[in-house]
Fold each of these.
Amino acid sequence: MSDPSVAASEPTLDPGAEIKQDDSGRRQDKPRSLGSDAWHELRRKPTFMVSLLIILLVVVMAVFPGLFTHVDPSAADLSHVRQGPSPQAWFGYDVQGSDVYSRVIYGTRASLLVGVLSTIGAVAIGGIVGILAGYYGRLTDSVLSRFADIFAGMPFVLGAIVILMTFNAPGSNPGEVRIITQVVLSIAVLSWPVAMRIMRAATLVAKQQDYVKAARGLGAGPLRIIVRHLLPNTVAPVLVYSTISLGANIGAEATLSYLGIGLRPPVVSWGVMISDAKDYFTVAPHMLLFPAAFVSVTVLAFVMLGDAVRDAFDPKSR
Amino acid sequence: MGRYVLRRLLQLIPVFLGTTFIIYTLVWAIPVDPFAGKCGQRPCPPAYVAAMRAKFNLDDNLFVQYVKYLGRLFTGDFGQTFAGADVSTLIANAYPVTIRLALVALVVEAVVGMTAGVLTGLRKNGFADNLVLVATLMLISLPVFVTGYILRGLFGTPRGTSFFDLIVPGVVLGSLSMAYVARLTRTSIAENRRADFVRTAIAKGLPTGRVVGVHLLRNSVIPVVTFLGTDLGALMGGAIVTEGVFNIRGIGGLVFTNIQQQQGVVVTGVVTLLVLVYLLMSLIVDLLYAVLDPRIRYE
């Protein structure tokens, strides 16, 4: 660790400036668009490649769980209850005597599904509302922004608890599809304002550009301007946000299941496994730690991917 | 300034009404029978149901119910549970604990997060920078209850509810935001480090401590303050998981048990209070901008 005061002095400022010059010199040789520039930047980044690999692996796990294990995730053998990791079962057995490794692999699908669908939902609602608010401005903007504030003001966990408990009275057992839909919708409904604000800010900037004025001068209608001119230029920051929030939503699914209001058996998901394991943490920590590790690594991959993409698209941060 | 505050306060009203109305509808209007299971194994006697329906205005139109509820709320009457306990007493018992927990979390995340952010922002791409980046990534990707179980395993559950006892739960509650604060500070410091005013401050021979502490930090702290301010509301709402892990009897546990028992009055009361805290904090943050950066003017 170094003395922070040294860092602020003149010498450290110089190398930074030099690097900047170097960078611009290289780029002058070979002009590139922002997109391809970002791609070249990304390909050289190890974190980008690593997170991409992890995400690919998780997706393959979700689509073809049979490739990774031949053990039935719902097969239970009471003689193995809560046994720790062994060569027969790498991650040990859970409280029903089911193989934790197999359940983690089969749980990927539900967890990823909730994460992807709720992110798509939040980005779709937020994106549409945000671009409309930004484009029309004035009263539309005020009304839509206040409407978004209503949902932003609701504390996430409390809001989700109230929504999920209202639609499923305690003790009831809703079907598999119904509970997944409810969890997806409640995460989306409570998190869309963030996407809306990002989209609105990007639209406000893009709206002032000459090409938008030119398109309007040539007689293009609002729909054409929004779809053909604004959308392609505002979508990047929202996509970066959505990668990061996809990770966060997988974590949210785990939290809701942990509280016993999210997905529930017979659905297998990482959150459900954590919820089953939480009462036995002191005697059998492996039951909680393995699914939690899968949640963490997946979230980590999405956050790292989002970070790398954002840095690549933001020339100022280089 | 006065006009700006007034306008912001007026803007808060529709947001407050919207949020509380949605919660009220969810809690009172959607469940088919709010008295299911209230009287043990048998159905409730009609006299009891009629008395309760009259007490909670359940026979009125939804909007009339909501307005009546709000009217009583503004006179400080949070209502009574089905069993007759005062909701305001329940909240008064649980709220101080949660506020203390949230404050501890806020202090932890502000102090640790900003220190880490300043140290790494000044030296981008150094060893400390990469260390903090990896550490923040870890914190962001760990679900709160996992951090909670690990720290509970190391330190045990708190014995009381004093500030000192709540340090470990506070660290858990604030861990995620701490990572965000560190990253925000780092980006902000790194951006402003090359600014002209910093160069001027160095050039006129100010000690580096003053350059960093006064010139650089004050100009870099605005996004961090925004985050911290709105986070206080989120911390109180999110305390439910931490309170569960550490067995602290705060607002989160109160809401959770009362939703399970379908005590609508308690749920709407607590959520209304939390929404109010969130909205007021975002107003205070907006007003703080002018203190931190005199260039910002309120028209």
Amino acid sequence: MDLDRRKVFALVALAVAVPLLFPVGIPESVTPSTRSCFAAIEDLPEGSLLLVSFDYAPSGSAELAPMADAFLKHAAEKRHRLLFLALWPEGAKFCREAEALLGEEYPAYEYGTDFVTLGYKAGLESVIKVITSDLRGTYATDVRGVALDDLPLTADLTDITPVDLIVSVSSGTPGTKEWVQYAATPLDTDIISGTVAVQAPIIAPYVPSQLNGLLWGLKGAAEYETLLAEVHPDAVPGTAAIKRMQPQHAVHLVIVGLIVLGNVLAVRGRGRREPAGGGPATDDDTSGHRLLWGGLIVVAGVIAFAGVRSGGQVGTAYIRETTEQVSDGSTRPAFESVSRKEKDAADVRLSPSRTLGLWVAAGLTLAVFSFLIGDNPAYRFSESVFVGVSAAYWMTVGFWDELVPNLFTRLAPRTVEAWGVGNFDGRITDWDWTALVPLALSFLMLSRLLPAGRKVSTWALAFFVGATAGIKIVAYFEADFVRQLGQTITPLWVAGDNGAFDAGGTFTAWVALFAVLTPLAYFYFSAGQRGVLGRVGRVGIVVLMTTFGASFGLTVMGRVSLLIERFEFLFRDWLAM
Amino acid sequence: MSTFVPRWIAGVTGFVLLLAWFVPAITGWQDTALRWFNILAAVAFVLGGLNIVITNVAGVRAREPGWGYKAVTLVAFVVTLACGLGKLGVRPSTTFPDAAYSGAYLQDGSPLWWQFEYVLTPLISTMFSLLAFFVASAAFRAFRAKGVDSVVLLGTALVVMAGQSVLGGWLTGWLPEDGPLSVLRLEKLREAVLTVPMAGGMRAITIGVALGVVATSLKVLLGIDRSAYGGR
């Protein structure tokens, strides 16, 4: 018996939607890993310096935004000082959101004294490597263009060695792994990480000697929110992750049920041909077109229902008119987004551009979801828009955050200042001839677009490849080989607190050792997998299956988190439900 | 194609950066080289963007199948780039009000901010969220207990999923919270699986990858591996 994949999709959608619309409280028990993370911030003396790196894109924000909020609130409760930066172009947005959170919930926190935003820089892990010895070389100014010398928090900061704790909020590369390899391990600095569940298995081997604590995806974020509310009841409670865990429970039940059902049906139908399954429907699937139209009718019905229920508030966005202080003493009008609950306030009005934005965002979200029914023009359109907008966005970020401050300003500081694009305080007066080298390499790289330039473009590529290889050799050897071997070689006779033999601890130590050695035996290709090596390697395969099975379970949590966030947007932000 | 010059550039650059880990006197060289590296990384975005333009313009001109979508990509690219590079709708920052382009390119309410919030964010998030549906479908169709390996894979996945959901409490919540039997509670079993065998297996992979990275990097720096520059 086969089950139409669209029925599976519908089941998953229902499992997300129903708990979101009709939530029930399910408490989260806090795991030791989350407690370690929490203790790393809690146990630091008040006023310690934390470096928070936002290394993720909106695709990771469903899990990571609640973590980042919880980390920030916790740090602010302890009055720690904060440095924000990002290694991902999209991370610039999350730096701004962190500033906004501190501004709203901790107004006593002062920019420049209590926190500074360094912002995004291109260069992946090399940004980390540079700032371990030369902060100003990459971040001459903060994200506002103010020289680090002029900010009390960073005036004496020449590199990141004085940082007491690195907080990496990461969903991929560069992220936590690179912070461990290039900063925490060589500098012996404490580091904690909040990662998406999909990435957590890659980070797990660094715990505990190279990574003080790890939050495992959305569940880790929910546990942190729970713990923060317990220990710091005065903090404005964060509940985003706790709320998102409820649909998680439902989808997990559905997927476990589907696995069991699939296996039961497979056993019953053994001997019969397996049904063909897989990807989305194709254009020649006429039922797909019917479903597409049916879907549109359903969406129209839901909009109408939500419109009536919310009193015409579907897809509306409001702003509050405020003022902001300018450095010359004057003030100018400004705007800030507010929730629909405040729409009747005197200084609040409907924002046409943001209202249009909500409808565009909802339309694009539904267009991408339409791929579940089958490939169609709406999906292809959204895919084309995605490619164009994302490429242009990355170019923009690279231009303003890297090329202007670190290339053009060094080459022509007076011109850059006169045009009002950089060197705002006029501090840089002389040009830096060494900047001619990256300029030349840049032209060589761009010459790849010309048929005659392909040969010389490899020179720029060679610099790139050589630099990458040069910094990776020691980083990988130290952090991922030597220190990982060190974490493997632990006492195999474990004593408890009172000195007595600890059977559980000893068993765990032996399992941990075999879990490393047996896959390594399987990876040993210099001899045939026969005899003792073959048998040990066979055990290694079983260990690797355990690793991949656990990774699958975590992947489910990660992907479902994103789905929940999109449903939240549709229901709450767009449909006002 | 001659690989002589690129091999030397890669070798000298790489060995300078390698030595800088051990010789503090040349740390400054390392920092300078990495600053250049970061600039080139930003130029790579420019190269990628221009490549998209060239490829899609050619497709539109030739009226290739689906050329309309290529045109959409081009329009989206040009509009976003104009808003971003020109900082359209961005007011000067409050710190440097006299500098025309001192405002943040993602300033609240600016056209680029609007595109990031209402176009890019929903598209990225929704594209990745589609995987949740396909993971569920694959779980039903492909997750079969056919042998020892697949039973271990399946069993571990079920333990982890049950342990991180209410299912764990329903199935094993009756077990004591402390004592030897407590490890059989699914939420504790999940924690044990993640921190011992899974972390161990990943550690083995990490060690293997580290050796591979070191060996490959040395081959590149010594000029043995020339594939990156079109050689063999």
